[in-house]
């Protein structure tokens, strides 16, 4: 019996595309138009990722209503803005502005109430919100913020002409991201590649990984096939050790990966726990005012 030679490059097995997801138009908050990729009819979750939204509009009616006060418990929310400004305010007294190119990694943990409102009345608002699960042992941890201005996020320039903005994780070239100490050991990279070159990145084996195409089409060169992924689509990656990507012209995408927790998930709206009882408790605690209130 001969096995196919799976290791043909020094970097190991190239991940194939498992599924391309086009997203689902919906609205959330007080009426923000967005496209939902994870937590959608196409994909319930992708352990440890619970939700992925993209919002992009230059029509204020699509975003101005924002996300007025609402709670979270049991996971982390990651807001990354390509264009526009969002103001964040929470019940622990934390307040901040996420600017174009900036990121906020919020560990909601035991619970916060917060609002996320656009700080602009016109112009383009373009960004992403990703929900990352916490393992059972950390669901009730104290809330924590990691917030970075665009200029605080390391950018790696490579010989192949690519540029890698390292939000979280460590790249093959050894650049470590701004966000650290996250349970899912995530990689969160914003990658711009030159046309006519092949980009490689290592993804830890056994971690769930996907790309989101900001500017495509991109070609994902897996071990068994090449898959074309268009702009605004997300592609789930199969198992393997690395990603190989090319494009005809300048391309841009997010590469995100994380360690799956393989724990039971009970979720209801803004609460993500392990059991139904814990969800009930979250409602009880929130109604009793244990999450605190946003100061006006
Ligand atoms: Fe929120």
Describe the structure.
It is a single chain. The chain is mostly beta strands and about 300 residues long. It has one domain: Jelly Rolls (Sandwich), CATH 2.60.120.10. The protein contains one helix and 24 strands. The strands form five sheets. Strands 1-20-17-22-15-14-13 form a seven-stranded antiparallel sheet, with no helix packed on it. A seven-stranded antiparallel sheet has the order 2-3-4-11-6-9-12, with no helix packed on it. The protein has a four-stranded antiparallel sheet with strand order 5-10-7-8, with no helix packed on it. Strand 2 (about 25-30) and strand 3 form a beta hairpin. The longest helix has 12 residues, at about 275-285. The chain binds fe (iii) ion.
Structural domains: how many: 1
* Secondary structure: number of strands: 24
Give helix % range: under 10%
User: So how many helices?
Assistant: 1
Widest beta sheet: strand line-up: 1-20-17-22-15-14-13
Spell the H/E element sequence.
Answer: EEEEEEEEEEEEEEEEEEEEEEEEH
CATH homologous superfamily descriptor: Jelly Rolls
Summarize the structure.
The protein has one helix spanning 276-287; strands at residues 17-21, 24-28, 32-38, 49-57, 67-72, 75-83, 86-90, 95-98, 103-107, 112-118, 125-133, 144-148, 155-157, 163-168, 187-193, 199-202, 208-215, 218-221, 226-229, 234-237, 242-246, 251-258, 266-268, 271-273. By secondary structure, the protein is mainly beta. The strands form five sheets. The protein has a seven-stranded antiparallel β-sheet with strand order 1-20-17-22-15-14-13, with no helix packed on it. The chain has a seven-stranded antiparallel β-sheet with strand order 2-3-4-11-6-9-12, with no helix packed on it. Strands 5-10-7-8 form a four-stranded antiparallel β-sheet, with no helix packed on it.
């Amino acid at each position: 019996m001969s096995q196919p030679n799976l290791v043909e490059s020094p970097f190991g097995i190239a991940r194939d595309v498992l599924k391309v997801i086009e997203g689902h138009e919906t609205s959330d908050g007080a009426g923000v138009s967005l496209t939902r990729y994870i937590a959608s009819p196409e994909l319930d979750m992708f352990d440890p990722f619970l939700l992925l939204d993209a919002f992009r509009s230059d029509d204020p009616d699509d975003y101005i209503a924002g996300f007025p006060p609402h709670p979270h418990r049991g996971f982390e929310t990651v807001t990354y803005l390509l264009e526009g400004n969002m103001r964040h305010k929470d019940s622990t007294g934390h307040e901040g502005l996420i600017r174009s190119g900036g990121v906020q990694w919020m560990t909601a943990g035991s619970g916060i109430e917060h609002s996320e409102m656009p700080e602009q009345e016109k112009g383009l608002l373009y960004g992403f919100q990703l929900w990352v699960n916490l393992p059972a042992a950390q669901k009730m941890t104290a809330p924590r913020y990691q917030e970075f201005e665009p200029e605080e996020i390391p950018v790696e320039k490579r010989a192949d002409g690519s540029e890698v903005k390292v939000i979280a994780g460590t790249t093959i070239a050894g650049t470590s991201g701004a966000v650290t100490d996250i349970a899912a050991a995530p990689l969160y990279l914003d990658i711009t590649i030159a046309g006519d070159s092949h980009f490689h990145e290592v993804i830890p084996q056994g971690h769930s990984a996907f790309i989101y195409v900001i500017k495509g089409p991109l070609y994902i060169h897996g071990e068994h096939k090449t898959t074309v992924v268009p702009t605004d689509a997300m592609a789930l990656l199969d198992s393997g050790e690395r990603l190989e990507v090319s494009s005809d012209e300048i391309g841009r995408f997010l590469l995100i990966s994380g360690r799956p927790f393989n724990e039971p998930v009970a979720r209801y709206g803004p609460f993500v726990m392990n059991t139904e009882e814990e969800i009930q408790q979250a409602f009880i605690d929130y109604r009793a005012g244990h999450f605190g209130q946003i100061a006006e």
